From TrEMBL:
PANTHER family: BIOFILM ARCHITECTURE MAINTENANCE PROTEIN MBAA (PTHR44757:SF2), DIGUANYLATE CYCLASE DGCP (PTHR44757). GO terms for biological process: cellular response to nitric oxide; regulation of DNA-templated transcription. It catalyses: 3',3'-c-di-GMP + H2O = 5'-phosphoguanylyl(3'->5')guanosine + H(+). It comes from Candidatus Brocadia fulgida. This is Diguanylate cyclase/phosphodiesterase.
Length: 1251
């Protein structure tokens, strides 16, 4: 069935099979149609215009058609829209097409959202005609509904209201509008500030709550009067803020004149009221002040001269004269206004008050003086009036006159003062400079005034500023001594007294200073001090070469002379320069002065020496032309020569020079002559002291200690050597007897014999032990010599002490060193032998046993080679301390040398007693040693021999203990063994083996076997390790553990090692030539070999002779080699590495090496020791160690080889740890070169051997 019940033909012939139909219930549709008619009626009767536009093509406004409009729409637009249904917008409203309205309708349809807008309609003339408020809303079928209303009038009102609000918003006063009932309709934003209330609280409400009861009654009354038509101005106070405002009310009327609203402005006059109140209060205070003045105060009109105001002082004088004419009141016989009443200076050109006009005048009647002050002011009523204040200043004028006379007197005194008087303002500028200041410093008053103080040198400016500031703060100074400068730059010493100058308020406005020139006084004082210093030098025994330079230097400082020197008169007629000082010392270079054989008028020095009187000249004087010319070249304008005397003979001269002329006045010359006399005395005393010092120095220079006593034995003098020897100073021993340093080591007889000898006048010699001041003893060879007078009586004794303490100590040390080990301080072999001999005698006497215990450290050589000999010595000392604690008192432990110790265990009854001590020694040594950051474990092998059971003499007893020790070492060490007779046989066997080994290399008994290193992942042979074997003619095949230790001890390892290296390299090259070019050979190198100085040359020669590429040689090192941290070994490794040689570490993990050494040394391969591999599958500790070693090798990018692999389980375990390179019986035992040739011919791969 299709829509509208159209039939569907069923068969091919077109016959109708069925007819289907539908029935629709249109009840609701009819109701809807009814509602639509109802709505239409409502819409037609609404006052809101409504139209519907259909936008057939939303993008084309020309297709917009009007499909509905109500009657209100026609009335609002003035267009008969009912006749335009179906018409386009262009036909209905052509003017609308020029606006954006159509696009706004399209936007509503597109967005599906309603939109509010305004539309303006204009007349044909272009004036605004109508304003519509429009709401466009979307309808179905691209329709848009438009609802609009005419808001032209309301817009006009709104615009006027906005303008009104803007006007009110801009004013600073409160603007408000109320209805006729007093309800607030509008306020501006000032409302809240003045009332304290928010505007919204009062919109539409009465203004009554804004005022208290009193002000509210006024407000209601004023509002009623305003509504009644009055325009009022009044004041009210707001209740909440207390602010007083001035209100002005107006009416707003309609067109008929009826009052619609009241409008008002309220201005805050609170501050004005307060100001008025303050003004009134101020007026009261001013009146009170004016009434309290002791001066005439009145106000008069400038035009009429009428008195408007008088103060109490004037009223008391003249009564109430207010309202009278001033010139008639104050002046008698005055016919017209005086000049003061008509003073035009009180007003400016515009007639406004111009300022204050003051003057003084003397009343001709009573002769009193008055100070008048006039000024024009504005009176309270706006008139310009004259305010006059007249003060009686007669007393002040008298005071000022007295002060003027005083100042004149003071100025005269200041100018007449012999002291310089200077005043400064607060900035440091000169305000007073008297005549004495001009004379003292050289600046005139004109040059000094109103400028910074000129007398302060540049380096004293900060000091002067600080002094001025202290005075300005109120501090005064009296007699402060400072150095200042004159105009010519010369220094002047002054005594300064200062005080602050105060203004009327008591504040410092400047400073006053009184200055005395104390240059001469200070120089005299300084010269006196210099004389005292010279006396002290003399008392101290200072030589002339100390005193004279000091005097010259001090004179240049005191007098600021550029040159001072002292010369000594020589017998050859010259004057030698002994001392000099000053900036012009260059004057004396090449200077030669003669006093003899030269005319007096040519040399002032010769004149002074010959006459014995001081001589002075200036460069301007005609005499001494040669001297003057030379001095002038150095800027020296005047100089003085003062003679020096000794026993009334001139011995030298003092010379002083200056850049200025006429410097050396009579007073200065007298001062310098006194100084020269003191210098002369100093020279004389110094000469005598020099002689005494020479004698004293001779005694003091004696290397031995010397002291002198009087005949009573009291010490009177000692030399320096005595103080050094005894520790006592001269002050401590003088007037003391030699008993002071008595040691108590000698008996009374010793001292009695000494005194008997020296009292007899004979010399005594002998050794004496004395006591040092600090309590220690010292030994001297003492010689005491009596000093005899002319009568042969002894008056003094001279004792000479030769210190032989060190000699005695050396003798003791030699004895000690002969019997004790220098390192451990244990008895050595000599003392040990002596004590053993005594113990053997003691054992025979008491039928007791004596044991000799021989101890040798196991693996000490490894520790010594690894950690260095210094560490080995430290370990031996620590070990000796432990061993001393293992024995009894009376027993002896001795060091025979190296790491061998031997004990005497005396007075035992059974050999087992010695065994207990031996076990104790093992136990004590089992604890680790912590030395220099290393933890070291030490084991030992101990042999025991018993006297007299094992031997009857010392040598055999020691030998048999030694044999027992070696037997303990062969048993694995860290144990003890008693001597047994069969041990001698083993020792003999070792000796025979050493002899055979010495011949083995020459006889060709040594051979090299090779064990493959295999990559177990592929079975490929990677390398061969060269292993030494000895085919002994009698003992058969010997492995290295039987003879290598002997080779190491005897040094045979050097030639044997070189032979093994040559053989292995030659064989490897042969394999390369046979077609196996990748095989590498590994050769073991011992510590002793590595310490050869020519090892690099040997290896280079072997490689050259065999033709083997260095890259296929790997040298296998022990951990002990790299642990030595020897720079020479490191250099050897690096040099060989540069050839291409590889290095591996054998048995890694069994020694003490650290990762830092692996990083420093050029190692390529780590080899895991067979002791770790053996139990790798059963022992977790061994498994952990192997795992760690492999991890270290991997992290350092080193190859890893496991040694001693004998089982498939071991190999599998290593493979899981990524260790593929292995060596051991699992693949092959060590083979001869021929067997290896056969093995290689079968293929370079190996498989597991059946076990």
């Amino acid at each position: 069935m299709r829509d509208y019940a159209q039939p569907v033909w069923g068969d091919a012939q077109g016959r109708v099979i069925h007819i289907y139909g539908t029935a629709h219930n249109i009840t609701e549709r009819n109701r809807a149609e009814e509602r639509i008619r109802l709505y239409g009626e409502i819409l037609n009767n609404l006052q809101i215009g409504l139209v519907v536009w259909q936008l057939e093509n939303i993008d084309d406004v020309k297709t917009y058609k009007l499909i509905a409009a109500n009657s209100a729409a026609a009335q609002c637009t003035g267009v008969a829209l009912g006749n335009l249904i179906g018409k386009t917008m262009t036909e209905c409203f052509p003017a609308l097409m020029e606006t954006e309205v159509p696009q706004s309708y399209a936007e509503v349809v597109r967005s599906g959202k309603a939109k509010n807008m305004k539309e303006d309609r204009f007349s044909d003339s272009g004036n605004l005609k109508t304003i519509f408020s429009v709401r466009a809303f979307p309808l179905t079928n691209n329709c848009v509904g438009i609802a609009f209303v005419d808001i032209t009038e309301s817009e006009k009102i709104h615009e006027e209201l906005k303008l009104f609000q803007l006007l009110f918003a801009e004013i600073r006063d409160l603007a408000y509008i109320c209805d006729t009932q007093g309800n607030i309709l509008y306020v501006n934003n000032v409302f809240e500030k003045l009332t304290g209330h928010k505007p919204e609280e009062f919109f539409g409400k009465s203004f009554a709550p804004l005022f208290d009861e009193e002000n509210l009654q006024k407000a209601m009354d004023f509002h009623k009067r305003t509504v009644a038509g009055e325009s009022l101005q009044f004041e009210l106070r707001f209740k909440k803020t207390g602010i007083v405002c001035e209100f002005r009310n107006f009416q707003l009327r309609d067109g008929t004149g009826n009052v619609l609203r009241t409008i008002g402005i309220a201005r805050d006059i609170t501050e004005r009221r307060r100001a008025e109140e303050a003004l009134q209060e101020s007026h009261k205070r001013l009146t009170s002040v004016l009434d309290g003045l002791s001066a005439v105060v009145y106000v008069a009109d400038l035009k009429t001269h009428e008195i408007l105001y008088t103060n109490k002082y004037l009223r008391d004088l003249l009564g109430n004269v207010t309202g009278k004419i001033c010139w008639q009141t104050f002046q008698t016989n005055q016919a017209k206004p005086c000049d003061f009443c008509t003073n035009h200076k009180l007003l400016d050109a515009d007639g406004n008050p111009a300022g204050v006009y003051s003057w003084e005048f003397q009343n001709t009647v009573d002769g009193r003086w008055y100070a008048i002050s006039d000024r024009a002011i504005t009176w309270v009523d706006g008139r310009i009036v004259r305010l006059e204040i007249a003060t009686d200043i007669s007393m002040r004028r008298q005071t000022e006159e007295a002060l003027r006379e005083t100042n004149q007197t003071l100025q005269a005194l200041i100018q007449a003062s012999p002291l310089a008087i200077i005043a400064l303002d607060s900035q440091g500028n000169v305000t007073l400079w008297n005549q004495a200041a001009e004379r003292m410093f050289g600046w005139s008053q004109h040059e000094a005034l109103h400028r910074p103080l000129p007398i302060v040198p540049d380096d004293k400016q900060e000091e002067s500023r600080a002094l001025r500031e202290r005075v300005l703060r109120g501090n005064s100074f009296t007699g402060a001594e400072v150095r200042r400068q004159k105009r010519d730059g010369s220094p002047v010493d002054i005594s300064l007294s200062t005080a602050p100058l105060l203004d009327e308020q008591g504040n410092a406005k400047g400073i006053m200073g009184v200055i005395a020139d104390i240059t001469h006084l200070k120089r005299t004082r300084v010269i006196d001090a210099l004389l005292h210093e010279i006396d002290q030098f003399v008392l101290q025994g200072q030589p002339p070469d100390v005193i004279l330079p000091y005097v010259c230097t001090r004179l240049t400082e005191i007098f600021a002379h550029p040159l001072v020197w002292i010369g000594m008169k020589e017998t050859d007629g010259t004057v030698s320069i002994s001392a000099q000082a000053g900036a012009q010392e260059s004057y004396l270079r090449g200077f030669k002065a003669r006093w003899k054989d030269i005319p007096e008028h040519e040399c002032i020095i010769g004149l002074a020496i010959r006459t014995g009187k001081s001589q002075t000249i200036d460069a301007q004087e005609p005499a001494f032309q040669q001297c003057r010319e030379r001095a002038r070249q150095y800027g020296l304008q005047s100089f003085l020569v003062v003679p020096l005397f000794s026993e009334d003979k001139v011995i030298g001269t003092l010379h002083l020079y200056d850049h200025k002329t006429h410097v050396f006045d009579a007073g200065t010359i007298r001062v310098l002559e006194n100084l020269a006399a003191r210098i002369s005395i100093a020279l004389l005393v110094a000469r005598d002291q020099q002689r005494l010092r020479l004698h004293s120095a001779a005694m003091a220079a004696v290397a031995n200690a010397v002291f002198i006593t009087d005949n009573k034995g009291l010490i009177t003098w000692v030399n320096d050597a005595f103080t050094r020897l005894s520790g006592y100073t001269p002050d401590e021993v003088c007037d003391q007897t030699p008993r002071l340093f008595k040691s108590g080591r000698h008996d009374l007889t010793f001292y009695q014999q000494m005194w008997q000898t020296i009292i007899a006048g004979k010399v005594w010699c002998g050794e004496v032990v004395n006591c040092h001041k600090d309590g220690r003893f010292y030994t001297v060879n003492q010689t005491i010599t009596p000093l005899l007078d002319q009568n042969g009586k002894t008056h003094h004794f001279v004792a000479v002490h030769e210190d032989i303490t060190e000699k005695k100590e050396a003798e003791k040390q030699m004895v000690y060193m002969a019997h004790y080990d220098a390192l451990t301080h244990l008895p050595n072999r000599i003392l040990f032998t002596d004590r053993l001999r005594q113990e053997m005698i003691h054992a025979n006497r008491n039928k007791r046993l004596t044991s000799v215990i021989f101890l040798d450290l196991d693996r000490f050589k490894t520790i010594n080679d690894t950690l260095g000999h210094a560490f080995g010595d430290l370990l031996l000392k620590a070990l000796a301390d432990r061993l001393k604690n293992c024995i009894r008192e009376g027993d002896t432990v001795s060091r025979l040398g190296g790491d061998e110790f031997i004990f005497i265990i005396s007075d035992i009854s059974h050999p087992q007693d010695a065994a207990l001590i031996a076990q104790k020694i093992l136990n004590v040594l089992s604890a680790s040693f912590h030395l220099e950051g290393h933890e070291v474990h030490v084991a030992s092998s101990i042999g025991i021999a018993i006297y007299p059971l094992d031997a009857n003499d010392i040598d055999n007893l020691i030998k048999k203990a030694d044999i027992a020790m070696y037997h303990a070492k062969e048993q694995g060490g860290n144990t003890f063994k008693f001597y047994m007779e069969d041990m001698n046989i083993n020792n003999y066997e070792r000796l025979l083996l050493e002899n055979d080994l010495r011949k083995a290399l020459a006889k060709g008994e040594l051979t090299v076997y090779y064990q493959p290193q295999v990559d177990q992942n592929t079975g490929t042979i990677m390398s061969m390790e060269a292993l030494l074997r000895w085919r002994h003619p009698n003992r058969g095949m010997l492995y290295p553990e039987k003879f290598i230790s002997i080779a190491e001890e005897t040094g045979l390892i050097i030639p044997i090692g070189e032979w093994v290296l040559m053989t292995a390299c030659a064989q490897t090259r042969a394999w390369h030539d046979a077609g196996f070019p990748t095989l590498r050979i590994t050769v073991n190198v011992s510590v002793r070999q590595f310490k050869q100085q020519n090892l690099v040359n040997i290896i280079a020669r072997v490689l050259q002779e065999t033709g083997l590429d260095p890259n296929f040689l790997e040298l296998e090192l022990t951990e002990g080699i790299i642990m030595q941290n020897d720079m020479a070994i490191l250099a050897t490794l690096q040099e060989l590495k540069s050839f291409g040689v590889h290095f591996s570490i054998d048995d890694f993990g069994t020694e003490y090496s650290s990762l830092s050494y692996l990083k420093r040394f050029p190692i390529d391969t780590l080899k895991i020791d067979r002791s770790f591999v053996q139990d790798i599958t059963t022992n977790p500790d061994d498994a952990a160690i192997v795992t760690a070693i492999i991890a270290v090798a991997k992290s350092l990018k080193l190859e890893i080889v496991a040694e001693g692999v004998e089982s498939k389980e071991q190999a599998d375990f290593l493979r899981e740890l990524h260790c593929s390179n292995i060596q051991g019986y699992l693949y092959s035992q060590p083979l001869s070169a021929g067997d290896i040739d056969h093995l290689l011919q079968k293929g370079i791969t190996l498989s597991f051997k059946p076990q």
